[in-house]
Amino acid sequence: MLHPIDLTLDAGECVAVLGHNGSGKSTLLRIAAGRDTPTTGQVEFDGAPMDENDPRVRARVAVVGDTAACYPDLTVREHLRLVATAHGVADAGEWIDHVLADRRLDGHADAVPSALSSGQLQSLLLACALVRPRDLLLLDEPEQRLDPDARRRLADLIAAETADGVGVLLVTHHAELARRAAGRALVLRDGQVVADGAPDDVLTADGPLGGEA
Ligand SMILES: Nc1ncnc2c1ncn2[C@@H]1O[C@H](COP(=O)(O)OP(=O)(O)OP(=O)(O)O)[C@@H](O)[C@H]1O
């Protein structure tokens, strides 16, 4: 259960949400995405209620969830082409090449998901969000299964997103990623915000995450 949370995410801002297993991070992200309905209160996107089925929301909000959802018989490049085409991106070929290289997937462009490592699969999920237009990016533990280099590039990616004016809600277990990528960090415990502030102030050794921060 989540207690009431009042959170505004501005364009170009990254807010990180941290907390122990079961503290409510993914629940918050699903509610923010319009995927789950809160029992009280509401979520608005650009002044209107958030609804994941709303075409305006689908066109402008990219979600990278915590479960891999892929087509087993489509290659990496075909996934990206499919997403770009569905979102009306014309002549996406060069951009897809760029995203493939950026996520270190260029050597696996013709591989199907079952031939990827778990980290490469996670990179594919991220890549799918990058080949489509977006004003809001919702990330649920995007660092999962990524090696340290890929995690650093994830932080760079989020910085590039915010520099482009994209709002990013980042659910993460990785305090260093939050420090590098986010301007604000919330810590949840039992569905309640127990800390909220600049990552360097919140994610300290004597903060709510203790030695994990
Ligand atoms: N589909 C569901 N139905 C009922 N309860 C759920 C469901 N999903 C999560 N919960 C419960 O809601 C609480 C918050 O879960 P949530 O997945 O948001 O935590 P989390 O902070 O994202 O955890 P983790 O770090 O393990 O991913 C937990 O007590 C969990 O058992």
TrEMBL record:
<dbReference type="InterPro" id="IPR051782">
    <property type="entry name" value="ABC_Transporter_VariousFunc"/>
</dbReference>
<dbReference type="InterPro" id="IPR003439">
    <property type="entry name" value="ABC_transporter-like_ATP-bd"/>
</dbReference>
<feature type="domain" description="ABC transporter">
    <location>
        <begin position="1"/>
        <end position="213"/>
    </location>
</feature>
<dbReference type="InterPro" id="IPR003593">
    <property type="entry name" value="AAA+_ATPase"/>
</dbReference>
<dbReference type="Pfam" id="PF00005">
    <property type="entry name" value="ABC_tran"/>
</dbReference>
<dbReference type="GO" id="GO:0016887">
    <property type="term" value="F:ATP hydrolysis activity"/>
</dbReference>
<keyword id="KW-0614">Plasmid</keyword>
<keyword id="KW-0067">ATP-binding</keyword>
<dbReference type="GO" id="GO:0005524">
    <property type="term" value="F:ATP binding"/>
</dbReference>
<protein>
    <submittedName>
        <fullName>ABC transporter related protein</fullName>
    </submittedName>
</protein>
<keyword id="KW-0547">Nucleotide-binding</keyword>
<dbReference type="InterPro" id="IPR027417">
    <property type="entry name" value="P-loop_NTPase"/>
</dbReference>
<keyword id="KW-0813">Transport</keyword>
